[in-house]
Automatic annotation (TrEMBL):
Its main location: endoplasmic reticulum. The lineage of its organism: Eukaryota, Metazoa, Chordata, Craniata, Vertebrata. Homodimer. The monomeric form is inactive while the homodimer is active. Residues 1-20 form the signal peptide. The gene is CPQ. GO terms for molecular function: carboxypeptidase activity; metal ion binding; metallodipeptidase activity. This is Carboxypeptidase Q. GO terms for cellular component: endoplasmic reticulum; extracellular space; Golgi apparatus; lysosome. Keywords: Carboxypeptidase, Endoplasmic reticulum, Glycoprotein, Golgi apparatus, Hydrolase, Lysosome, Metal-binding, Metalloprotease, Protease, Secreted, Signal, Zinc, Zymogen.
Length: 473
């Protein structure tokens, strides 16, 4: 997951225009509800078969084992790297070997930022090396580095109030972690805000509630017409140390060296595979995760887990010999971490088919213990999804929440297509996010089995309903 949680609420309370008296509405509503319940009763056996195969049967731990082999073989997968090319080739082959249909690579262009050598050293009040991770799109420093006094602030407001003190200095942001969505503003915009008051570099407390001396990277955005200054994240531990030193009136000097380079956009691909619909092949349910990652850790959690339970959904449906009426399309996005870049180009080249895109699904906030589904769609569609979730009673994961999220599916949701995302126990997600800690060690096969079961039941049933999910636009 990249920048900001998107809260694309497409909930609508419009009633069909044909309805007359409130009583009549009530009766119609009742019958509709009864009808949905009846349709879902027919899916009970197939839902149980999916759950059995994924959780207890022959496919137990498969998505976990596939992911482990993949991340141990390929490693992390940043846009523009050989690793990402290898990952795409690996998946292209694996999806064909899995006998999925229409396996294809759709070319797109992605940003190509290279971290290079980087280091930071505190020179005053004493020598101490500072762990850093440069932020994506940051410029580098001159080879000899930037050596400057530090000013520590805890918010943009404090920076603006002390603007005069910041000139020529390195701004250290020691902002508290409130939530990812709120606090990530410092990572995204910290450099430009510091540059506006004349700072020469910025060091930002990592966007995480917890740390074992771990810097966390991520994309950042320079504002137009503001000088570009080098920027990196530091650990919570060092940010707090700088803050304590500053509060005691000690002078802090840091030497920052970053070899970061922004190269021209690179060639990449969204990786696609299908189970072609048996009755309405032109109508599509998209299940997805992103294949690219940051250049630290293994990208097992962000978003290896999401990508591999999405693959698993198609594998399970194929293994059970199911033939949904609509096409199930797996898309493994590229260039997500740079701002949903691969998905944006996919949307541009496929939006002509928007009336045939039934539902877009993405998992990109972990595959920990699943707790339910987030869904964006109108009230009628919500009623259908609520009943689909009841099919997951055998594993007690029946909650339907609002506001699906996912950078890659946001393009479709903003245009009115219903969207769904898996929600899990994410309290530890940001401990590992975009850090060296994002490895296979945080993944759990039992949780991945449950995630795959939820993902598969939902995508299969929606793809197999006689009608597409209702939508407003
Ligand atoms: C799946 O993983 C769980 C947890 O590690 C383990 O108990 C179980 O035996 C595994 N199942 C298979 C089929 O390997
Ligand atoms: C997808 O596969 C189906 C069945 O194999 C085939 O009929 C169809 O032409 C394929 N579509 C594309 C775009 O390749
Ligand atoms: C501190 O580090 C600087 C730069 O690496 C070095 O030149 C200097 O000798 C060090 N000072 C001490 C006291 O170790
Ligand atoms: C089912 O899940 C809910 C949380 O959604 C939990 O409160 C309840 O205890 C669970 N029930 C069982 C039987 O595990
Ligand atoms: Zn992600």
């Amino acid at each position: 997951m990249k920048l900001i949680f998107l809260t694309t609420a497409l909930v609508s309370y419009m009633l069909p225009a044909c309805l007359g008296f409130p009583y009549e509405q009530e009766v119609l509503h009742q019958t509709k509800h009864e009808r949905i319940k009846k349709v879902m009763a027919d899916y009970k056996d197939v839902a149980n078969a999916i759950i059995d195969l994924a959780v207890h049967g022959g496919a137990q731990n498969r998505s976990y084992n596939r992911l482990a082999r993949f991340v141990d073989t390929i490693g992390n997968r940043m846009s523009g790297t050989e690793n990402l090319k290898n990952a795409i080739n690996y998946m292209y082959k694996a999806l064909q070997e899995d006998k999925l249909q229409n396996v294809s690579l759709e070319p797109v262009k992605v940003p190509h930022w290279v971290r290079g050598e980087e280091s930071a050293m505190m020179l005053k009040p004493r020598n101490k090396s500072i762990a850093i991770l440069g932020l994506g799109s940051s410029i580098g420093t001159p080879p000899e580095g930037i050596s400057a006094e530090v000013i520590v602030v805890s918010s943009f407001t404090e920076l603006h109030n002390r603007a005069k003190e910041a000139k020529g200095k390195i701004v250290v942001y020691n902002q508290p972690f409130v939530s990812y969505g709120e606090t990530v503003q410092y990572r995204a915009y910290g450099a430009s805000e510091a540059a506006k008051v004349g700072a020469v570099a910025s060091l930002i407390r990592s966007i995480t509630p917890f740390s074992v001396y771990s810097p966390h990277t991520g994309w950042q955005d320079y504002q137009k017409d503001v000088p570009k200054i080098p920027t990196a994240c530091i650990s919570i531990e060092d940010a707090e140390m700088f803050a304590r030193m500053a509060s005691r009136g000690e002078t802090i000097v840091v030497l920052l060296k970053m070899g970061a380079i922004n190269n021209p956009d690179a060639d990449s691909f969204n990786t696609v595979a299908e189970i072609v619909g048996s009755k309405y092949p032109e109508q599509v349910v998209i299940v997805s995760g992103h294949l690219d990652s940051w250049d630290v850790g293994q990208g097992a959690m962000d978003d290896g887990g999401g990508a591999f339970i999405s693959w698993e959904a198609l594998s399970l449906i194929k293994d059970l010999g199911l033939h949904p009426k609509r096409t199930l399309r797996l898309v493994l996005w590229t260039g997500e971490e740079q701002g949903g870049v691969g998905a944006g180009q996919y949307y541009q080249s496929h939006k002509k088919d928007i009336s045939n895109i039934d539902l877009v699904m993405e998992t990109d906030i972990g595959t920990f213990m699943p707790t339910g589904l987030q869904f964006s769609g109108n009230t009628e569609a919500q009623a259908i999804m609520t009943e689909i979730m009841q099919l997951l009673k055998p594993i007690n994961i029946t909650n339907l929440y609002g506001n699906a999220e996912g950078t890659d599916i946001s393009y479709w949701m903003e245009a009115g297509v219903p969207g769904a995302s898996l929600i899990d126990e994410i309290d530890k997600y940001f401990w590992f996010h975009h850090s060296q800690g994002d490895t296979m060690t945080v993944q759990n096969p039992v949780w991945m089995n449950l995630c795959a079961a939820v993902w598969t039941v939902v995508s299969y049933v929606v793809a197999d309903l006689e009608e597409m999910l209702p939508r407003e636009r």
